Amino acid sequence: MADIPGVANQAEHTHISTALEVEKLEVNLFRSKTLWVPNRARGVFGGQVISQAIVSATNCVDKAYGLHSLQCYFLLSGSPAVPITYYVERLREGRSYTTRLVKAVQNGKLIFVLMCSFQKPEPYQPSHAWPLPSNVPNPEECELQETIYTREAMKEGVDERLKNIYKTIIEERMKSPIAWKPAKLHDVGPDGTITYMYWMSARNLGTEYGVPFQKCVVAYLSDLNFIGVGVRTLGLKRYGRGPGSVGMTSSLDHSIYFYDDNFDCGDWLLYVVTSPRSGSGRGVVQGRLYTRGGSLIAIMSQEGVMRADIRAPTEVKL
């Protein structure tokens, strides 16, 4: 990747284990160690809060059970200045399933809630899955996002404001624990459905991490630019002003369903994302995560605020 002024060529990658680490204070009580606010975000990265909540819940579950689903709501933006405390409630202990509720509190306020369910494996049951999309280039044929933005920033005629935005994105991507390669800018189906695809992997992930931690990594990466697909499907510009540009985005909820334990986040995973509906300042995105071998390992969905830069007659507080 070529150098551009103002961007470090060799930025140190923040390890994913650092981003997900929590401190156990006592039984059912945990606290964050690090918190990260993405560029132009309103608060702490939602994927990090989800992942830390899952780490906390997993520490309160018998190892015979594996995480299979989660549903969560973002209630308030998190601040990086104060640790988040995670309270785990043991709601159900069943023979096949066990359920946990996690409440994330910061400055005395409930900012996030997560309900997650764990299951004993039932490998003898029948199964089916949608296949990996066809004609997707291999990750080795795709470029890292920071490489793409570096090329854009070095083009002649790029104004200084946009170049500075690109520099910020490049630095953030280079430091991210998740490598990200767009597989296709977008794919339009016969019915007009727009699909976005990304290859994603955890940088420098060792072989010592088992399935429970790998699922926490999936939760982290699943929220990276997830709601942004809805914005692009609407055709809104990210860095402009006016009705054709983004006024605000914010995640409202997030869900994940796991269907395979045989995957490695240190290898490339294909994230296939669509946005079936948006309106009233909201939108839904849905994702499917595949191994490069074609196994569908997880299904995601999220609703979020997607507002164009339009001033309503009466401003309403979110």
TrEMBL record:
Key words of the record: Hydrolase
Molecular function as annotated in GO: fatty acyl-CoA hydrolase activity
Pfam family name, one: 4HBT_3
Biological process (GO), any one: acyl-CoA metabolic process
GO CC term, one of those recorded: peroxisomal matrix
Origin superkingdom: Eukaryota
Acyl-CoA thioesterase-like N-terminal HotDog domain residues: 37-119
Residue ranges annotated for the Acyl-CoA thioesterase-like C-terminal domain, each copy included: 172-306
Family assignment from sequence similarity: Belongs to the C/M/P thioester hydrolase family.
Alphabetized PANTHER family for the sequence: ACYL-COA THIOESTERASE (PTHR11066), ACYL-COENZYME A THIOESTERASE 8 (PTHR11066:SF34)
Name of the protein: Acyl-CoA thioesterase II domain-containing protein
